[in-house]
Amino acid sequence: MQTKTVVPGKVDKENNSNRKFKIKKEKGTEVDISIEIVDEGVYEVVKLSIDSLPATMNDGKPITWYNNFAIKKNGEHINQRYFVTVPGIKPTDVVIFDGNGNPYYYTGTVTNDTFEMTDGDPAVGNA
Questions:
Q1: What is the mean pLDDT of residues 11-40?
Q2: What backbone phi and psi angles, to 5 degrees, belong to 73?
Q3: Residue 65, exposed/middle/buried by CB under 10 A (0-12, 13-18, 19+)?
Q4: Could you tell me the pTM of the whole model?
Q5: Which of the two ends of the chain, N or C, has the fewest CB atoms closer than 10 A to its terminal CB?
Q6: What is the pLDDT averaged over residues 114-118?
Q7: Who contacts 67 (Cβ-Cβ below 8 Å, separation ≥6)?
Q8: Mean pLDDT, rounded, for 111-124
């Protein structure tokens, strides 16, 4: 079970938008990422620590975590379309961890370092 520790001061709104955010890295392998939420609304975005995330996939491949964050609307994690941009991400073997079960390989398309998600509480990495 993942311990969710908020890392303060690591999220900025981009261009004063309520739908575009930059989530800054905290340490080590992490990178700054951007997210853009498709629907209008008021969102709360927080940076979460990568410290308690799994180190390997079920197939034994080590995971390099790039960032961990949560998006809420009206106090609840969202379940709606948004886009994540991770500069330099390897399009194959993208790993997602939503805190439930085990990390899994992303099966969607990665174009120009950007991919679509709907889960409002993911960690993103590569294996």
A1: 94
A2: -135, 130
A3: buried
A4: 0.93
A5: N
A6: 96
A7: 23, 25, 30, 31, 32, 33, 47, 50, 86, 123, 124
A8: 94
